[in-house]
User: Fold Winged helix DNA-binding domain-containing protein from Nonomuraea muscovyensis.
Amino acid sequence: MDTLSLRSLNRATLERQLLLSRVDLPPLDVVERLAGLQAQDPDPPYVGLWSRITGFRHDGLTRLLHERSVVRATLFRGTQHLVSAADYLWLRPLLQPMLDRWQKGAFGRATAGLDLTELAETAAALIGTGSPSRPELGRALAERWPGRDPVALARSVQGLLPVVHPPPDGTWGRRGTTPFALARHWLGEPPAAEPSPRDLVLRYLAAFGPASVKDVQAWSGMTRLREVVEGLRPVLRPFRGEDGGELWDLPDAPRPEADAPAPVRFLAALDNVVLGHADRTRLMTAEQRPHVIVDAALTVDGFVRGLWAVRRAGDTATLAVRLFAPLSGAEEAEVAEEGGRLLRFAAGDAPSHDIHFTTVA
Assistant:
């Protein structure tokens, strides 16, 4: 069994995540190849696609949302993701047991004593073929169950029912009340009847491998996947990490050399690649991890070296870069060059752009 170094794991993951070089692929293909995009806020998926696709423009994703080719919904780990419509139809029922646990963990006290099946059925009737906002749905549910928290009731529905959040929700720069639509109406067909966890594991490894069983579970929020992975043993290739841990991968998946060049990348906030593993040392240190969960990460030579944010003041949009440690002159020049491209994408309407370097406090 071959042992993979930390840099080898880093390069393999970056290659699967299309972060070693931008690709000339349609945005829908990339969304599927990445097994979805983290989408707690509307803007990060756009940045995530920009960092991976040559010449990506905002309307490349906005159009997919309006065409219903891509949907925004509560999925992995009970968080908002963008996935293709085709993937949603099998992922949503597969993740239902996890979403049931998520609902109980997040809103169990607020819904204690309620018949959750009745709550789901009532919500489905209220939504119908329309798209009420989350506050509207919450108020309607609270009329049925007076004294209950309308926010908790409405958000519980995201776990109990296959619902999606139609545009303009999830489009660039659009924040506000979240609309609800029943997936079967929005997509014109019901979710799959018997989805396979084997498909989930294989898709995960294609996008994030080589990886451990714990990695798959941390990314998906699902449990008891060891038996699934064991059942796939004949079609997977085993490896060891530097710590001796068991890793699995698709036999023919790309695994670049450890010294393959990795360009500077401004990752989207909560980008897939920073949340895709239980062991995140292939990208960052344990000390950096708490920061990366809060702020968007900057990678240099494939590893997290700083954080970034775009801030506006008057006519100027400033890219604020906070470094964990100083960069070499060549590295800082590369960061500034890529940062200029990011500002033109994320703040192209600003008359003036600036880049400011500081250190992480």
